[in-house]
Write a structure and sequence with these properties.
562 residues, Beta-Lactamase, 4 domains, six-stranded parallel β-sheet, 20 helices, Rossmann fold
């Protein structure tokens, strides 16, 4: 029962709350705006051009710092060269209901064509919708009367200033050529030059645009210019595909085609081997427009933000000035020299270069040292492995018996820790005096000496040879010792066998004459001595034909020895 009453009380309280009147806003306080703001971006051609001139990225970078939630919408109008195509107005007409209803917090245009489409019907745009223009070449204060919530950035297109700059850099200048497209800004430049009767600074200036020439004809025309001419490049769009790509490609082709210096009007074109000039920065203009948009998002009326005029900057490419041998006295002092390092920066980079070279050299030396040490260690390991398996021992000994180096080969079970050799007397079970005498004789006469000796029940042969003095900075002998037990035993056995065979030949009852390969007698036993009448000692070394004469028993004439 109690729970039912409690529920009824809650329902009754909720109904009473809903019946309370809403609080009225304070005097002068406007109704709360929606939390999410809508912003419309109008591109005169396509997003690629906005990307190329860095206008859209610059605007978005600034806008990303805003804490106010917002939604961006955009219109990509068709190409820039047609002044008033129906298709562009039809595209914009789709957005007019939203523009007149106040859906958009702000609408931003990126150059003349986009703004001109809005300019025709500024009065119809909702008063709360701010109109901001970026990089506009010309505007009228009368626009504020139609739509007070308006501001932006105006840029100066410095064609005449670039002609005068060329005259200052090249006093012998005779001719100027201006390259334009079909945009409204280009039409305005042509009108200004026409009003000046095509003369700027006293030299004739010719305007070329796609209505007159094809791209190939234009490139052919500027290729015939000499170094006493100047080319001022604003834009050249000859078809409706990839405008941004055309702009960069055309600037590069123009710079390569003409021997005349090329001046440009946008800072993004300074990278294409041009001389430079009075240039505008659409990126800076878009960034400043983005800052204005931040103020609008914070609730400020655009009409309270003054329209700003952004002057051109004088930027020249230093490598191009050097290649054209422009004296430094002709370069304006206000010019920014692109590609020229200041003395401080040059010293800094030279210092970095020296440090880098030093670090690189040190790294090379360390790496080389590491390789050398590794090679030496590997070489020693190979040598140690080689000597440990050789049945040889060798020593380097001086005349005083000091052992300077020793390799004991397989050591035959010797304990290395106990068998450290520093002097001849450290080697036990040998005749030290005899070895010392042989070493000194070898040092004195320089002849190789051989010695057979017994060592601990084995027979060994030692070879002594004098080494060059420069190896150890003293007179030393290389003493190589080899176990020759089996070899000496074989020699002794062969010698004893030969001796027994010789005694056998001398003792038999038959005559035996032994000769060498040349037929000279080496041995004559007693029976042969009696038969020939020659004593063994007298016959030794004589020809067998001389000692043992064979005659025919019938004719008594000498016969051929068998």
């Amino acid at each position: 029962m109690n729970s039912t009453v409690f529920r009824v009380c809650l329902l009754l309280c909720g109904w009473l709350v809903t019946q309370l009147p809403a609080a009225e806003p304070a005097a002068g306080e406007s109704a709360a705006r929606p939390l999410t703001r809508h912003v419309l971006l109008i591109h005169s051609s396509d997003v690629a051009r906005a990307q190329f001139y860095q206008t859209l990225p610059a605007l978005l970078r600034v806008l990303s710092t805003s804490p106010v939630p917002h939604i961006l919408e955009q219109i990509e109008l068709e190409a820039q060269w047609d002044c008033s195509p129906p298709s562009q107005e039809q595209k914009l007409a789709l957005f007019w209901p939203a523009l007149t209803s106040g859906k958009y917090c702000a609408v931003i245009t990126f150059n003349d064509l986009a703004y001109s489409l809005l300019q025709k019907n500024l009065a119809q745009i909702h008063p709360d919708t701010a109109v901001l223009f970026a990089a506009l070449s010309e505007w009228s204060a009368e626009d504020l009367q139609q739509h007070p919530n308006l501001s932006g950035v105006v840029q100066n297109i410095a064609v005449r200033e670039n002609i005068f700059l060329a005259l200052q850099l090249f006093p012998n200048l005779k001719r100027g050529v201006v390259l334009l497209d079909r945009s409204q800004a280009s039409n305005r430049i042509r009108q200004q030059l026409r009003e000046q009767e095509q003369l700027v600074g006293g030299i004739p200036v010719e305007v070329l645009h796609p209505d007159q020439l094809s791209t190939a004809a234009m490139l052919e025309a500027i290729s015939r210019l000499d170094q006493n001419s100047v080319v001022v490049f604003y834009a050249w769009f000859s078809d409706k595909s990839s405008l941004a790509r055309q702009q960069s490609r055309m600037c590069a082709e123009i710079s390569a085609a003409t021997p005349a210096p090329v001046l440009v009007l946008s800072d993004v074109l300074l990278q294409y081997a041009v001389l430079g000039g009075w240039v505008n920065s659409e990126q800076h203009a878009a960034a400043r427009t983005g800052e204005m948009l931040l103020e609008v998002l914070d609730g400020r009326d655009a009409g309270q933000i003054p329209v700003e005029t952004q002057d051109s900057s004088l930027i020249l490419n230093w490598p191009e000035l050097q290649s054209r041998a422009v004296p430094s006295g002709r370069i304006p002092g206000s010019a920014q020299l692109r590609g020229r390092m200041t003395s401080h920066r040059l010293e800094y980079q030279q210092g970095l270069l020296l440090v880098g070279l030093g670090v690189g050299l040190l790294a090379v030396l360390l790496f080389g040292g590491y390789l050398f040490v590794a090679w030496r260690r590997r070489s020693r390991q190979r040598s140690a492995a080689l000597f440990s398996h050789l049945p040889l021992r060798f020593f380097v000994v001086d005349g005083d018996g000091n052992i300077l180096h020793a390799e004991l080969g397989n050591r035959h079970g010797l304990d290395e820790r106990k068998y450290v050799l520093r002097h001849l007397t450290d080697i036990h079970d040998i005749d030290h005096a005899k070895f010392q005498s042989i070493i000194r004789d070898t040092i004195r006469n320089g002849r190789q000496t051989t010695l057979d000796f017994a060592y601990r029940g084995r027979l060994r042969t030692a070879f002594f040879s004098k080494l060059p003095t420069g190896l150890y900075k003293r007179e030393v002998v290389l003493w190589v010792s080899q176990d020759t037990t089996e070899l000496q035993q074989s020699r002794n056995f062969a010698r004893e066998t030969a001796e027994r065979f010789l005694q056998t030949l001398k003792s038999i009852g038959d005559a035996v004459v032994v000769t060498d390969l040349s037929g000279n007698i080496t041995m004559l036993n007693k029976v042969a001595a009696r038969l020939t009448g020659w004593d063994e000692d007298e016959a030794a070394g004589r020809s067998v034909d001389h000692v043992f004469n064979i005659v025919n028993y019938q004719t008594s004439e000498p016969a051929v020895s068998p």
